[in-house]
Amino acid sequence: MTDKNDRAQILAANEAFYRAFEQKDLKAMSLLWSQGTGSICIHPGRKALCGWQQIRTTWEKIFRSTESIEIDTEIINVEIGQQIAYILLLESVLQVSRGRKFKAQSMATNIFAKMAQKWYLVHHHGSPIMK
């Protein structure tokens, strides 16, 4: 059985992930992710990054090359187990990089693992939606 607060904590962690992304805040991003080698991040159209060090490096590059970013999300489904939870959602992204605007939509899955009574992001996978 999951704790009554788990859903609220997972949704808050998910929201914090997208706010750290929008604010290009590497410190906040670091606090959300599991620092282990088992963490995985797959940006839309990219190969899998395994382990926090690779994931951190890609966030640094994204933040450095992005002037601004806005992300709207629409949660499709939330599933919560005792130690693992996932959120399936639609991401709508508006990014400005080198003075150019880019709009994109992705289906994303964020997986969280409960460690020491806190939910950490262990997997983010964004898949582009082709129109």
How would you describe what is shown here?
The chain has 131 residues and is an alpha+beta fold. It has a single domain (6-128), classed as Nuclear Transport Factor 2, Chain: A. The chain has helices spanning 6-22, 26-32, 52-65, and strands spanning 40-42, 49-50, 68-80, 84-97, 100-115, 118-128. The protein has a 6-stranded mixed β-sheet with strand order 2-1-6-5-4-3. The chain is globular. The N and C termini lie far apart (41 Å). The model has no long low-confidence stretch (mean pLDDT 94). InterPro entries: NTF2-like_dom_sf, SnoaL-like. It comes from Lusitaniella coriacea LEGE 07157.
Please specify the SSE layout and strand pairing.
Layout: H1 6-22, H2 26-32, E1 40-42, E2 49-50, H3 52-65, E3 68-80, E4 84-97, E5 100-115, E6 118-128
Parallel strand pairs: 1-6
Antiparallel strand pairs: 1-2, 3-4, 4-5, 5-6
Helix pairs in contact: 1-2
